[in-house]
Design brief:
The complex is a heterodimer of chains A (about 475) and B (about 230). By secondary structure, chain A is of the alpha/beta class. Chain A contains 16 helices and 17 strands.
């Protein structure tokens, strides 16, 4: 770890009889689950915490723990960090196959432990941590380094508003945890002010502006004096570089500063020296994800040469974004997390920025609400549907229980109603699309509707192939 | 016609400025004036009275600043409401006009224009779907909040805005949601409430002095409303 000593185990507790009972029960549960062929469940951790509520504080942890949190990008960044560490030969425990709440972290630690709870992989753990659940994880786990990718408006129901999440993190991050924070996000940069920290930030990127087009802008005034901020540049929402003309407050200086080179690589300045790191994708969000991963790994102790070698091998997870070409047309799956106006706005912006004529199929309903209730539609009015109003978005298909609400939102955004088709049944979406109108078809889906998105892409692909002469469509 | 939007830079959480954007579509000739926090509100300026004063939901820290910003104009706001001036306060905005907000051991004094107080519990977020009645029509919306609101007198609340049919009113088992006094309409309903409820929106426009109010996207709005009602039943 680059000569730095790990945190002393402040706040961690001794193993008790209750702890051992919970551990044995959880291990038994894991064994039963394995025998019946179920994987990736957080049930062992759930049982452990039910039986011993401070289980995480008593469970021995590997010597070094890296944690990754934030509103958007934490799964992508965690996957990148884990892939780079694996490529460098590190053997570590992580919660990639499970959940990012306390039960998922507990399950990962249980799976990595001996009968009496000692870690099998003793040196390192990497955990993705749900920011809303930070209070149930961070004080007990005491991570050595915590990366926060960004803080944005997320689900109104669960995360309320960004100030609420910043308060949770600031309250529960242990004092000894070193922080890796986003210098271009004033909400993120202000977390837990007393802790040791480094910042990452990106220089000018294509599309930067001084006027923000997004509806959601959670930092509009100076966090210190409340006066309006002046922006050197804005990227999206509150991401950018700001200063306060009234009190002199400004965005922090980045310790890891990235610029984009013409060949699509990222040049990162680390301690005054510039290193080139390959990027899997040069979209601004992906620049931040790669930069965040590089900053965390560098703080952990990897050399710039190791980072460059391994980051060149990374790809964006296909479950979040994937392109296929059928009959000369791009069919693009793009995750747009439901009830998350910022994630959806980023997806809409990506559609807007994509060259040529585009069509979009929107599956935006929350899977569970659509099945059981009426989804809270308020988030639609924080998402930038206005980005879909351009004439190059030639067709929009909306399908799902709330299709009338999404249609109304599109009309409010100025989208030509002649370009929108909407229906309740998701199975009819592929048939409603005219794939010949567009050079690229985006299919936007929520976390729980990836199977539906894949199925629709296949159906659209078949239609394109059939229209082109009935050839075989390969998936 | 002038519509005053109070503190839109800070008080527009949960998509609720959609209410204002929708009014802009319904009333293209109206002038919308945004009053920044710290500025003198139009309703207190002595000039033309706004046809509607709108205040949207905000964070808890912003709420205290908003109460402070409105405090010097409390009597002007009382007068505006007393004269039948229309106001729409959504989400936790209505709490600013109540007596106080109880946050654990801390009491935050508010403007004292409404006979209610709020209890804040940051450890428990209340989320629910609401169905109610208003002037013989059904009103629906969504609640997502850290507070519940109670009458200061302790008696059953009389000045409710919507009669509860399904979901939660101002407090658990309260028969009403929201607060109404004259043409002041305060509701916790999100959605945004005007886009969800064509009947209520028409009524509000009438109270603002709009003759024969016409709703923008009326057919689509009605279809979405009927679909939601059907899905709730």
């Amino acid at each position: 770890m680059d000569g730095r000593k790990p945190n002393p185990p402040v706040g961690r507790k001794k193993r008790s009889l209750r702890f051992f009972f919970a551990l044995f029960f959880a291990k038994g549960t894991a064994l039963v689950l394995k025998l019946i062929g179920r994987k990736g469940t957080s049930m062992p951790g759930s049982w452990a915490i039910i039986l011993c509520p401070d289980f995480l504080a008593r469970m021995p942890r590997p010597k070094t723990v890296l944690a990754i949190t934030g509103t958007n990008g934490k799964t992508t960044v965690s996957n990148m960090v884990e892939d780079v560490l694996s490529g460098c030969g590190y053997d570590f425990v992580c919660n990639r196959a499970g959940t990012n709440v306390h039960t998922g972290v507990a399950s990962a630690l249980i799976a990595n432990s001996t009968l009496f709870g000692k870690p099998k992989k003793k040196e390192l753990a990497v955990f993705e941590v749900d920011e809303r659940s930070a209070g149930n994880i961070l004080p007990q786990l005491q991570p050595d380094i915590l990366l926060c990718t960004n803080i944005f408006q997320d689900s109104f129901k669960r995360n309320a508003h960004p100030e609420f999440i910043v308060d949770i993190l600031s309250r529960h991050i242990p004092g000894g945890t070193r922080l890796v924070l986003n210098a271009d996000d004033l909400l993120c940069a202000g977390i837990k002010p007393g802790n040791q920290r480094v910042y990452f930030g990106a220089g000018p990127l294509p599309g930067d502006t001084q006027l923000c087009e997004n509806l959601v802008q959670n930092v509009r005034v100076c966090p210190q004096c409340g006066q309006p901020l002046a922006w050197e540049y804005r990227r999206y929402h509150h991401i950018g570089k700001a200063r306060c003309p009234a009190c002199g407050f400004r965005s922090p200086q980045a310790d890891y500063f990235a610029t984009l080179s013409e060949d699509g690589a990222m040049a990162v300045t680390i301690q005054g020296e510039e290193y080139r790191l390959p990027l899997p994708d040069s979209a601004p969000m992906q620049v931040y994800n790669s930069l965040a991963a590089a900053a965390l790994l560098s703080e952990f102790g990897l050399s710039p040469r190791q980072l460059a070698e391994q980051m060149g091998r990374l790809t964006v997870s296909e479950s979040r974004y994937s392109e296929k070409e059928v009959g000369g047309r791009k069919l693009i799956l793009h995750m747009a997390k439901g009830q998350n106006p910022v994630a959806c706005s980023r997806a809409f912006d990506n559609i807007r920025q994509y060259p040529g004529k585009k069509a979009a199929v929107l599956f935006l309903d929350d899977f569970f609400d659509a099945a059981r209730s009426v989804e809270n539609t308020a988030w639609l009015y924080d998402a930038d549907f206005e980005f879909l109003a351009g004439e190059d978005v030639v067709q929009i298909v909306v399908a799902g229980a709330r299709h009338w609400d999404v249609y109304l939102r599109l009309l409010m955004a100025g989208v030509d109603p002649g370009r929108v088709v909407h229906m309740r049944g998701t199975g009819e979406a592929a048939g409603a699309l005219d794939p010949e109108k567009a050079e690229a078809v985006f299919i936007l889906y929520d976390v729980y509707t990836i199977a539906l998105a894949n199925q629709v892409r296949e159906q659209i692909g078949k239609r394109i192939t059939e229209k082109a002469g009935g050839g075989r469509h390969d998936n | 016609m002038i519509i005053e939007v109070l503190f839109p830079q800070q008080c527009g959480l949960f998509g609720d400025l959609g209410n204002v954007r929708y009014l802009q579509k319904c009333l293209p000739q109206a002038e919308f004036i945004e009053t920044p926090m710290g500025g003198r509100p139009l309703f207190a300026s002595g000039g033309e009275a706004p046809a509607l004063v709108y205040l949207g939901p905000m964070t808890e820290r912003t709420q205290e600043k908003a109460i402070g910003a409105l405090a010097p104009y409390k009597e002007a706001l009382r007068e505006h409401i007393g004269k039948g001036g229309a106001c729409l306060f959504t989400g936790n905005a209505l709490e600013a006009l109540g007596a106080y907000i109880q946050d654990g051991d801390r009491r935050i004094d508010c403007l004292g224009l409404l006979p209610v107080y709020a209890k804040r519990d940051m450890l428990h977020r209340h989320n629910s779907v609401f169905l109610g009645g208003f002037q013989g029509q059904r009103v629906m919306g969504f609640k997502s909040q850290f507070t519940m609101c109670w009458p200061t007198g302790g008696e059953a609340f009389q000045d409710g805005l919507f009669r509860v049919e399904k979901g939660t009113g101002l407090y658990p088992h309260c028969p009403v949601e929201g607060v109404r006094t004259q043409n002041f309409f305060g509701t916790y309903l999100l959605g945004p409430v005007l886009l969800l409820n064509p009947g209520f929106t028409r009524y509000l426009l009438e109270k603002m002095g709009v003759e024969r109010p016409a709703l923008a996207f009326a057919q689509e709005m009605e279809a979405a409303y009927q679909q939601r009602l059907q899905d709730m039943s």
